[in-house]
Design a protein that fits this description.
The structure holds two protein chains of two kinds.
Chain A: E1 13-19, H1 25-38, H2 43-60, E2 82-90, E3 93-101, H3 113-121, E4 126-130, E5 133-141
Antiparallel strand pairs in A: 1-2, 2-3, 3-5, 4-5
Chain B: E1 7-13, E2 19-27, H1 32-44, E3 51-61, H2 63-78, E4 83-88, H3 90-99
Parallel strand pairs in B: 2-3, 3-4
Antiparallel strand pairs in B: 1-2
The chains are: A alpha+beta, B alpha/beta.
């Protein structure tokens, strides 16, 4: 069946979960490329969105519960072994959020190269703790697209 | 089972007859350690001259890849040599520009 091109999207949000392991970050990156195409982003914007995916993962993976081998009695229902990536796609804009349940008291390192890269890509990058889940969110807009 | 991005580090002889470590694919948090290991293997041979890297086949580089480059540079310096990048892809150019370290690994085309 071929769908007509003028059928509107039932939703513009896409969520994927992958095992919390470096090997699977590339699959989120691949998804970000698809989202950039849907949003009609420029190639440069799509490349920077992919960078943002990696930098967010680099910041979150060391914070995961059990990343240091320690056991945690965290109360969240979120799967400690999974990274959750959510994309919100609009014309000329992709919002991306990566989240994971993290060890109690952990915080995103805002002093190193990954954070510097992330803030170079999006100066409004946000870090949102929700219980023991930490989410890092960035938005990539096509140049000339209003926020 | 492991899902590993396409990555390869191969030692080749280039058109000038010199050894070069050719890196292809994604250099990211899953593969950066392989990049460092390949460069370590180069320096471990005790050969003279710089560590020559061809990054023109690199399709993606993140901050772990940049850290790997810096680590390789430090290791080379510790044995009295240097790293020479003889070619780099647009993907590498872009990431180094975002990181603000373009000059640090500027490709030395004259060495290609």
């Amino acid at each position: 069946m071929i769908f007509p091109g003028n059928v509107s999207w039932p939703s513009s949000a896409v969520t994927v979960k992958v095992p919390a392991h470096p090997d699977f970050v590339a699959s989120i990156r691949a998804m970000s490329r698809s989202m950039a195409v849907l949003a009609d982003l420029a190639l440069e914007d799509a490349e920077e969105l992919q960078m943002a995916v990696d930098e967010a993962a680099i910041l979150l993976l060391p914070l995961l519960r059990g990343a240091d081998g320690a056991h945690s009695d965290a109360s969240t229902d979120a799967d400690p072994q999974m990274l959750t990536a959510t994309f919100e796609v609009d014309e000329g804009c992709v919002g991306f959020e990566l989240s994971a349940p993290c060890a109690e008291g952990s915080a995103v390192d805002r002093t190193g190269l990954p954070w510097m890269m992330l803030t170079a890509i999006d100066s409004d990058v946000s870090v949102r703790p929700d219980g023991d889940v930490i989410a890092i969110a960035v938005t990539r807009r096509r140049e000339g697209t209003l926020s | 089972m492991s899902v590993v991005p396409l990555f390869a580090a191969t030692r080749e002889i280039d058109a000038t007859g010199q050894d070069v470590l050719v890196i292809t694919g994604d250099v990211d948090l899953a593969t950066a350690h392989e990049f460092v290991a390949a460069a370590d293997a180069w320096t471990a041979t005790g050969r003279s001259g710089p560590v020559r890297l061809d990054l023109s086949g690199v399709t993606f580089l993140d901050s772990t890849g940049i850290s790997a480059l810096l680590e390789i540079r430090r290791a080379a310096a510790s044995v009295g040599t240097e790293v020479v990048v003889v070619g780099q892809s647009a993907a590498v150019d872009r990431v180094l520009a975002v990181a603000g370290i373009t000059d640090l690994f500027a490709a030395r085309q004259g060495d290609a």
